[in-house]
Design goal:
This protein is mainly β and 736 residues long. The chain contains eight helices and 36 strands. It is globular, with a radius of gyration of 28 Å.
Length: 736
């Protein structure tokens, strides 16, 4: 018998249930009169119409598992075209009449939309700052699920980000990373916005992310939403080339206990744990902690000094009132050390310990006024301290954000909001030869912002147009406008096409405005300090982006997604070499550079058998910089610092007796500007159930390569890259 889904709910959860068989007589002896035969024939014809109108019609949302997740071991996958004639014959005639009448009462357009495409129904919230799905998102968005994180065996956030199509993730040394999207790469990439539970984690010193201090208990991550391309209309400055939003689970989803412990060659040791529950007053909570220690990597022709260790404690509480109010309060504290090796002409290579510590508190209140009206207010405080070869950074950030969404008439979904951020920093340097300094040493930077976005329904279930803009004022570049226009077309329930035009800006950072940096000067200039001076009147770097994309759930077992883009950059910051009379040469910053970037990304997931799933992606990217004289070549960005081609392929096997095998193969093209060759890395994870609550895993990384570099040295900060070695680690997880 064909199962159909009710159109009343947007999620398609109301499903007509299979009726019990008539137990009075065996199926083979039940008479089938002409009237019943006609009913069966009409029902079969309607089923054929539904099945040709879209894939996977008649399957429940629960039975259509996403293509990147294998079904439970031993479960048989049934093709959606299967029609159970025996069961249909066994149903009573009144039930068939009722179901047939219900179907005939609907128009053909509504029947086409009763199916569900699992890959397009994955929830996202980062594109428009409200709950939506991938299929309804006019942007290049990918979701790294908690299942993907668990099965990868990775133990840090940057490693997990390797799973996202199009991201360039390169390990510089044991605690430094280059993570970028569609643009410039490097440790200090400054055009990628990263958030953890709504808290922006960029470092205002250079407007980028220091990945060694971004961490959570990975077991508590709900999903990681990765947007390739601008997201500035709703998120503001620095959301230029992409947005990464790391969302952890509500504490109501983490009741019970969890513990993890492991050790290996590169991952020398790590432990973590969490305890969650609910109080008598209905407040859900969890407390968690983790510690890790990573060994040094390989340095050809030298001694590495890039080991790292860190301890972290955190908590989260969630409470929901009968009046539809939700309150979240969470925080964490960390302390550790990141060893570093710097290469300086004046002093040779310097080994130094880099203490890192910090903490944050966040609270969020949400009120649901109605199904179409919701408001939220968020406040967080973030503090971090770092010290490197005499330079100390102490930063305190206060951020207040309000947003509200509502429906205007029937065809406008409006979301708007306003925010305020204040950054208080103290930059000191007590080293006899300060490599990094700032004048003034203390500064307060403020940012006021507001945004509004309207999703207009042009044709129900077919055409949608989204228009909005971000308005902001900051201490460095004053007023900025960041608009976008996005068009979404849903040709059927299992496909979506979209295009977008948007503008985004990257505001100046503390160092670019008033910093002082002694760089590792080239030998031809002589053995003297070459100073880089910040410029206080710099404008914001601009991007105008053009994107087009298409995604489709071809059938229950296969889905794919493709995106192409063109980026037009303007007012990029570039270095100029100045030769003043009777003084040493120095560098300063200008905003005279420009660039053009283009590329495309394609990804797919396939459920090949009941126990074998596959996920893969390919990305091509290219960027060309225009640095007019007297600019220093390569200082705005390096065309050859991006891998032109990247390929990733993941195989996941669900074996018998609760065993799992995952194989991740990655190819990354060479980086000519960094003198880094291409490489192929193969990572594997094998896991099995030791007991009812205990799971053991063995993870191998870079198995077929003794070692390889992934990035080059940093000319201005003197970072010395090391090579990623082959490694293995094992761990056990306990859940109750």
């Amino acid at each position: 018998m064909v199962k159909t889904e009710s159109q009343g709910g947007a999620s398609g959860d109301d499903v007509a249930k299979r009726r019990p068989l008539d137990g009075d007589r065996p199926l083979s002896r039940r008479p089938l009169d002409r009237r019943s035969a006609r009913i069966h024939l009409v029902a079969a014809m309607l089923a054929a119409v539904l099945l040709t109108a879209g894939p996977a019609v008649g399957q429940t949302a629960e039975s259509l598992a996403p293509a990147d997740q294998a079904p439970p071991s031993g479960q048989r996958l049934e093709h959606p075209d299967t029609f159970d004639e025996d069961t249909a014959e066994g149903a009573d005639d009144e039930g068939l009449d009722s179901e047939l009448d219900s179907l005939l009462d609907q128009d053909l357009g509504s029947l086409r939309r009763t199916s569900v495409a699992p890959a397009l129904e994955v929830e996202v919230s980062s594109v428009s700052r409200q709950k939506s799905t991938i299929g309804r998102s006019p942007a290049a968005v990918f979701v790294i699920t908690d299942e993907m994180i668990r099965r990868s065996g990775y133990q840090s956030i940057p490693e997990v980000l390797r799973l996202a199509p199009g991201l360039q993730v390169a390990r510089i040394d044991g605690n430094k990373w280059s993570v970028s999207s569609r643009g410039e790469s490097g440790r200090f990439s400054d055009k990628l916005l990263v958030q953890i539970d709504g808290r922006t984690v960029y470092n205002p010193l250079f407007a980028g992310v220091l990945w060694d201090v971004q961490d959570v208990l990975l077991e508590d991550v709900l999903r990681i939403e990765v947007i390739r391309g601008p997201g500035a209309t709703v998120w503001g400055a620095n959301a230029v080339n992409g947005v990464i939003n790391i969302l952890t689970k509500s504490s109501s989803q983490t009741h019970g206990s969890y513990a993890i412990a492991g050790a290996g060659t590169l991952e020398q040791g790590f432990v973590g744990g969490r305890l969650g529950g609910r109080t008598e007053r209905g407040v859900d909570y969890r407390v968690w902690g983790k510690w890790f220690q990573r060994d040094e990597m390989d340095l050809v022709g030298g001694s590495p000094y890039d080991a790292t260790n860190q301890a972290r404690l955190g908590f989260r509480t969630d409470w929901e009132s009968p009046a539809d109010d939700k309150l979240t309060f969470q925080g964490q504290y960390y302390n550790g050390e990141s060893d570093s090796l710097a290469d300086k002409d004046l002093a040779g290579r310097i080994e130094f310990d880099q203490p890192v510590s910090g903490g944050n508190l966040l609270t969020r209140w949400t009120r649901t006024h109605s199904a179409d009206h919701e408001s939220s207010l968020q406040l967080y405080y973030d503090r971090f301290d770092r010290k490197a070869y005499g330079f100390g950074q102490q930063t305190n950030i206060f951020d207040l954000d309000f947003q509200s969404r509502f429906r205007y008439r029937c065809d406008h979904r409006i979301i708007w909001g306003a925010g305020y951020r204040a950054i208080f920093d103290k930059l000191t340097n007590n080293d006899p030869l300060p490599y990094i300094a700032a004048d003034p040493k203390r500064r307060t930077v403020q940012r006021f912002s507001a945004f509004i976005q309207d999703e207009m329904t042009l044709l129900e279930d077919a055409w949608y147009f989204t228009l909005g803009s971000k308005f902001s004022h900051n201490t460095y570049s004053n007023f900025e406008l960041q608009p976008s226009a996005r068009l979404l077309w849903l040709p059927n329930e299992s496909a979506a096409a979209w295009c977008a035009v948007s503008r985004a800006v990257r505001t100046p950072s503390r160092l670019s405005a008033d910093g002082r940096l002694i760089v590792n000067q080239p030998v031809p200039l002589g053995n003297f300090p070459l100073e880089l001076r910040g410029v206080g009147d710099l404008g914001a770097e601009n991007l105008v982006s053009y994107e087009v994309g298409y995604r489709q759930q071809t059938n229950e077992f296969f889905a794919w997604d493709a995106t192409a883009y063109f980026h037009d950059y303007d007012k990029l910051q570039v270095l100029r070499l100045n030769f003043p009379p009777a003084a040493l040469p120095f560098l300063d910053i200008s905003d005279a550079a420009a660039a053009d970037g283009y590329g495309f990304e394609i990804s797919a997931t396939a459920q090949l058998t009941a126990c074998w799933s596959m996920r893969g992606w390919y990305a091509f990217q290219r960027i060309e910089f225009d640095e007019p004289p007297p600019s220093v070549a390569g200082s705005a960005g390096k065309s050859g610092a991006l891998p032109r081609n990247q390929v990733s392929l993941t195989h996941s096997f669900d074996l018998s007796r609760g065993r799992q095998l995952d194989v991740i193969t990655r190819y990354v093209d060479n980086l000519p500007a960094e003198s880094t060759p291409s490489y192929v890395a193969v990572d594997t994870r094998f896991a099995w159930n030791v007991g009812r609550n205990l799971t053991a895993s063995v993870v191998g990384r870079n198995l077929f390569d003794r070692r390889h570099p992934e990035f080059g040295p940093n000319y201005f900060t003197g970072d010395v890259p090391t090579e990623v070695p082959r490694s293995v680690h094992a761990y056990v997880e306990w859940r109750r």
